[in-house]
Design brief:
Radius of gyration: 41 Å
Strand content: 5-15%
Largest sheet: 4 strands, antiparallel
Number of strands: 4
Helix content: 40-55%
Strand order of the largest sheet: 1-2-4-3
Order of helices and strands: HHHHHEEHHEE
Distance between the termini: 121 Å
Number of helices: 7
Length: about 300
């Protein structure tokens, strides 16, 4: 079969100039091969186990048929999941946007059915206009929007890494939340990609360029799993901003110019350059004789009794 007559799954025919492909043909073939292997393995293992257990409660032939049916059903389910995983992964990548779009559509429909047109327009104007007019709310909304953008930028960057190295699978980009400096994203790496791969050969700088950020720091998110990493994306420097101190507001303004002031504190430190150098003269006195620790003294009693005689 020629390439021009091939038809890629989940897409249009490859003939002609208007090609629309959701999943590329090599990727689809690879997942179809995995799904076929998973189907036969599941059929064999589950069918054998189910037939063994069912034979204890019914005729062995009926138990064997029941095991084959259960294995085939579970294998078909697993086959469908593996084949559809590339499409399910796309839905996972766009899940926040899909949920947001559904909320907007169904929210607008419910609002139109429960209120008149002018009321619906007024509510929409308040919901959209008030956050846009209030600066803290507007900045918070934009921070969450940047989280959605960063997830897609990271996915494209990981795809470029894998295409360059020709090994590995796309990681699962999990939660993303805003931080004072930018965004923080948790990622679950899949086989073929590790934290060391992201730290070498300027990969971190490529991540920063892809995310339109100033800097990206990659680290492990926990000690238990090496595949669970965290990316801190720095987009701004919050500590470099000018902070207005409220202390000048507490200084009274009606102080006269000739107001008495308290004298300064006297110096309490020791000025070493002003201390004269006095040479230390060794002592020429004769050393004292050292007394024994347990001196033995003999004291004679008045009646002529000497205790040393019995020692």
């Amino acid at each position: 079969m020629s390439k021009s007559s091939q038809r890629s799954p989940f897409g249009w025919s490859n003939r002609g100039g208007n090609n629309v492909t959701v999943i590329e043909a090599p990727v689809a073939r690879s997942y179809r091969r995995r799904a076929t292997i998973a189907f036969w393995v599941t059929l064999g293992v589950v069918g054998l186990l189910a037939a063994t257990v069912a034979s204890e409660y019914m005729h062995p032939i009926l138990g064997g048929l029941l095991g084959v049916v259960l294995g085939a059903v579970l294998g078909a389910v697993l086959f469908a999941l593996i084949v559809a995983w590339p499409v399910l992964r796309v839905f996972w990548h766009w899940l926040p946007e899909i949920l947001l779009g559904l909320a907007v559509v169904y929210g607008w429909t419910t609002l139109m059915q429960s209120t008149p047109l002018w009321g619906s327009l007024l509510i929409v104007a308040l919901v959209v206009g008030v956050p846009a007019a209030i600066a803290p709310v507007r900045r918070r909304v934009m921070a969450w929007m940047w989280c959605l953008i960063v997830r897609h930028r990271l996915r494209l960057c990981f795809a470029a890494f894998i295409a360059t190295n020709r090994h590995g699978s796309l990681p699962l980009i999990l939660l993303a939340k805003p931080t004072p400096a930018g965004e923080r994203v948790w990622v679950w790496l899949r086989p073929g990609l590790s934290l060391r791969d992201l730290e070498q050969d300027g990969q971190v700088q490529k991540l920063a360029v892809a995310c339109w950020a100033n800097e990206v720091r990659v680290m492990r998110a926990g000690r238990k799993y090496a595949a669970f990493i965290r990316l801190d994306i720095t987009r701004r420097e919050p500590l470099a901003h000018t902070v207005v101190s409220p202390l000048p507001d507490y200084v009274p303004t009606d102080i006269p110019a000739n107001a008495p002031t308290s004298p300064g504190m006297p110096p309490v430190g020791l000025d070493l350059p002003d201390v004269p150098d006095v040479p230390v003269i060794a002592s020429t006195d004769t050393p004292r004789q050292r007394k024994p620790r347990n001196p033995t003294t003999t004291t004679a009693s008045p009646n002529g009794f000497d205790p040393s005689d019995y020692a």
